[in-house]
Request: fold
Amino acid sequence: MTIRTTLLVVFLLALAAAPFVLPEYYVTLLNYIGLGSLATLGIVLLTGIGGLTSFGQAAFVGIGAYATAYATTAWGFSPWFALPLGLFAAAACALAIGAVTLRLSGHYLPLSTIAWSLSLYYLVGNLPVLGAHDGITGLPAVSLFGVVLDDARSFSFLIWIFVLLGLLSVHNLLGSRAGRAIRCLRGRSTMAEAFGVDTTRLKVAIFVHAALLAAASGWLYAHLVRFVNPTPFGLNVGIEYLFMAVVGGVGQLAGAVVGAGVMVVLRDVLQDVAARVLGVSGAIEIVAYGVLIIVLLQNARAGIVPFVTRRLPAPEPLKVPDDAPSLPMRDRPARGETVLVADKVVRRFGGLVAVNEVSFTLKAGEILGVIGPNGAGKSTLFNLLSGVLPLTGGAISVLGRAANGLTSRAIARLGLARTFQHVQLRGDMSVLENVALGAHMRSRKGILSAILRLDRKEEGALLAEALRQLERVGLADSRNVPAGSLALGQQRIVEIARALASDPVVLLLDEPAAGLRYHEKQALAALLDSLRAEGMSILIVEHDMDFVMNLVDRLVVMEFGRPIASGVPGAVQNDPAVLEAYLGGAV
Amino acid sequence: MNSIIALLLIQDGLTMGAVYALLALVLVMVFSVTRVILVAQGELVSYGALTMASLQAGHLPGTALIAVAGGVIAAAMELWAYARGPRSRTHLVAAALYVLVPLAVFGLVAALAPQGSGAFVRVLLTLLIVVPLGPILYRVAFQPLASAPVLVLLIVAVALHFVLTGLGLIAFGAEGVRVAPLIDGMLRFGPYFLSAQALFTIAITLALIAALFVFFGSTLSGKALRATAFNEVGARLVGISTTGSGLLAFSLAALIGTVSGILIGSFATIYYDTGFIIGLKGFVAAILGGLGSYPLAAFGAVLVGLLESGSSFFASAFKDVLVFALIIPILMWRSFSAGHAEEEEE
Amino acid sequence: MKTIVGIVCAVLLGTSAAKAEIVIGAVLSLTGPAASLGIPAKSTIDLLPRQIGDETVRYVVLDDASDPSAAVRAARKLVDEHKVDAIIGPSVTPTSLALLEVLGPSKTPGISLAGSGIIASPVEGNKRWSFKLAAGEDIQAGRVFDHLAKTGISSVAFIGFNDSFGDSFIGTFKKEAAARNVPVLADERYGRTDTSVTAQVLKIISANPGAVIIGASGTPGVMPVLELRKLGYGGAIYINQGMANSDVLRVGGAALEGAFLPTPPALVAEQLPDANPVKAVATEYVQAYEKVHGPNSRSLFGATAQDAFLLIRHGAEQALKSAKPGTAEFRTAVRDAMENARELIGTEAVFNLTPTDHNGTDRRASVIVRVDGGKWVYVPVDD
Reply:
């Protein structure tokens, strides 16, 4: 048994024993830790992993709590019947709010969560049906198999079963096709879109998932305290959940539990100390609490869990099944068939014409190079081809189908795969998982199957495909290390493997040789050469002349957005316009 | 509703908007220089008002002691840095300043406070007490975290807000204070009247904005701050220190916060925990300006002020529901007109 | 990890339950929005006697940050860890309501310091263990509307907190207004830490009511008064007992002059006619309090805490005859004795509790006071 597994087993055993051995009050604390963990788990998924900062988690806890409070007191529903009602209400609100606000960029999103959670808070406080500021009293206790859970001990089992189920759901989700895409939402969404990931849909999905976790916490809270009013669902509590997540470790599932545990216990210990030493509790605890958090984050800014796990041996690597079925492959065009056409492509930024009437065709099984000095418009052209930027004029077609106005996701579906000038790997994910993301489009299992682990067969196929591509590019041995630990040259190769995993017809490479050492360039050229031999069509945008000249079949040279020459390398090399462009400044 | 009421509502909205604008400007500045969303800026405002009121009552303000304590911690951190790292004299000088300045101010205030000085002297003393808190807070809380992610800095700022609120409660108690207005009276035009204090507040705000404009445009330190905001690494390469810029930004934040506090305290009752809600409104305004644009942030602040005053008149119980719900469409408009989002930090 | 911390803490704490003594717990808002209510109550508890009969009394005061879930946690700690025999507090209505679920199941009598009637009525279920001593808002409303009638004012407007306090206070006063056919011309709300009430006040002034009644507590209640006077409102202003402290006078200054308030007699203990039954007890309390906390520092939130103690002492003295502190029998006996208290004289009222009335105050719990020259001045009214 590894240390990690041992820790987990010890934790579970301790948890199971705790309600029997701890004094009543500590069971109460344990319950509050559980409630906090559940809501904070949503923050970990949403903020730590998905990169969406939300101050509104407490509002969803409130929705769950109020739904059950109202349904059980006004309609006399059983709490068990009110639970799905509350979950449904929270999911519906999350869908509605998410559809509107998750499209917001940058800092607008966190602010919108403040705005709607405050609105909701004051609205509830002024609705007489919901008891206004005084809230709703006299909620019934929850019964389970005829046992009434009306004391802290019995209720703690219920709470922690929910917490463990919540942890399992997020854990299962993250170790799946959708989970890899979710992990790329934070700072890697352009890349994810380029591999066919619908990032907006995934954002809404994790927002709903987080809301469901919060609503479950709210339901439990309501039946534990058996009283609800708006105070525990205000903005300051929403901030507190963020607090717990950051202190525990915002990118880690265990961070939710550790964060909630530390915060609840810390407050309680401080209250005790203050009461014992100074004879009173109050302001001084808040000061001490704030100071301790600052000191903690100054010494472990990633939170407590990473601070500890760094000192543990690395987790078990993912197992790739030997007998995995292979993923579906697309039909490949015959060698020499036209796969990509750019026809008088134009892109303007205001008055600046970045790309001006560039045309070329790419045939199956050849390598086409687009070169030019810095500022020639190569990167803009690349973004136009891959659908990151819309065209101002002209047309692009892929395999005979018009690609104008398509999103990068749709273009990826047509059979285009790309790499990035600035490497876009998820550095904390293993090389294997990074490559597996490339095959996203070739598989279908969604979030629900991931949570219920109904996706294992397909998941095996995905990992097997990723491994196959890593073997193809010669990096299979590095599959289990974090991608961020590789050298830059190897990271570029991993990007190519990821692109290959999408089973592309056309491979777009954005300055693949930038920053590589000589022998790395040689290895890269050899790889591309062998891909061409297998029938792959490749378009390289590059400014390294030497690298391109010996590799490509044909060349397009750009300057100031215009194509100034095209043809086979030998001819282009002696073109006067090209010589002028490359050497003109130096003569 | 008639034109007299309308005028008063607009005046009220503009006055509050002016105060929010000062907060928003500070938040934009501090964020662009240090990437800290300074939640605790509201506390600097309430400290300004509470300190001023305390001086008016002839007491020794607790903030003077808070500054001394903070200074000692900051100095200890400097000495620790000296002991561990390169034995640079800067650390020693800084340590001395952190201890001596608040201590000198404390002595001065202790001597002057019971005598009951004039309004001008009190404003000066208030500034002397609260402004050093700016660099002290930066040194103690944020300097060790200079390269941390925005989220961690935000959480530290929230923790700092807890600390300052708690200290405020201990130092000033739970009940509120009013600052005696520096200018009193009403200007009458027929049936219409304007409060001189409101006009004074708006005027000071405009003057401060103009001063900031000159500072950023024409002085060396101002340009250094702008350079750091634009490109931190680049600024460091040309010899502008991140720490220096951070300290300067926080000093300015404390200065503007204190002035806002003295202003707002004369027409609103200020409590130890007022800071959060006004800081929040300033934050809203700052974000409406995209956390990057000063004029848009100021405009956003005025908008928040007017929204608030209007919805208070028509449906006061639902005021905050209305203000914050109305912000969402504005946010969406801003977000989409801001165009494609930059890739956020990892 | 948590478990280990828990066990360590449990061992550290385990020593306290052994001694035989009466333990009185308090859950108060010492921080957060209601801190100005909780702090004077805490100052009063510091001055309470350490002895009831022959038993020593120990007090444990915990903060709830004005938050119901923290209040429940604090109460659980008092009940489970400190084995308290009674709980004083909490300070506000929502926290008091949240505590009902701790008081009932643990059979611990609790005496709330908050104002709203629903905390302890109707007396059934968990509320069998809940008491509330502040005079009912209906009693205050009765005093105010009597006074309005006497001074010939025929319309009112309200401005108060957009929270539980404001809802409950203004709600009760509106009922009284409806019963007496006094038109309510405006009902405006604001937040405790709001920095402007100009808009709300403008609306009130444009409705031109005969009197404005403030439904807010502490210094935040002064803001509409200042604004009303600044914008030229000339009618009568009624503040309330939640604002009866010296900070309010300090912040309000000249604007408060002439304002009336219905208040428990403790505020003006020394000025009461000798015939007033609470004069002696109230005077003794405020003088003891001000001896420690300075002149004019008296607070009615503290007085309510004092009365809570007086009631618990009454209950404990009876209960000691039949049971030992720290047991459920003792707590039940305390509760039973408290709910049968007859003519118990406190600082704020003369209490007559019954098993169906856990408040027990009457009109003697409220007098009318006017602000005059920066002081509280008793206004004699005939009963």
User: Anything to note?
Assistant: Residues 3-183+191-279 of chain B form one domain. Chain B touches chain A through 50 residues (CB under 8 Å). Chain B is about 75% helix and 0% strand.
